[in-house]
Specification:
The complex is a heterodimer of chains A (about 110) and B (about 120). By secondary structure, chain A is mainly β. Helices cover about 0% and strands about 50% of the residues of chain A. Chain B is globular and about 40 Å long. Classes of the chains: A mainly beta (about 110), B mainly beta (about 120).
Amino acid sequence: EIVMTQSPATLSVSPGERVTLSCRARENINNKLAWYQQKPGHAPRLLLYGGNTRATGIPARFSGSGSGTEFTLTISSLQSEDFAVYYCQQYINWPLTFGGGTKVEIK
Amino acid sequence: QLVESGGGLVQPGRSLRLSCAASEFSVSNTYMTWVRQAPGKGLEWVSLIFDGATTYYADSVQGRFTISRDSSKNTLFLQMNSLRPEDTAMYYCAKVTGPKRYYFDSWGQGTLVTVSS
């Protein structure tokens, strides 16, 4: 099983700030990484796939980078609606696995 | 759109079948998956079915859960047997983007399963 580790667990940020979230895979997953956003009481929403490709309707302030074992999700200027939990997921190997999540909260 | 149902309170060792009704696309030629989330915890992938008969399961549910679909009802199912307290979670069905693109581009609202005596 490919273990996915996200850091930090919680990030306290002010609106308008730039945010960088990290996701690390225990082994090489090439670019087979997706990012999701989940707000309280709601289902997750796909943000990015292929490490850096935005899903349909996702604003340009969300971007992804990385390959191999180290990945980053960046929110260029945090909006009020972006306070949520973010998960990464690898899809190169079975079982599919998620990271533990990073909660982005209001500072 | 995906709408789950079938969750509820069930005793350990008993069974439950979850349903996920799809609209706007056909589940019969779409890769589909189940993902769960224990209360206050992160996401855990459970099972995935290809557009044919190929299925995959997490080790934690292998041999106890079965994913299937009914084309006539355009519905995905998750048959859960020998339930354990650690199976308590919100269960989401989701549409998988496609072959080797095993990420989830559309989700249902979830159905809550509580396993307790």
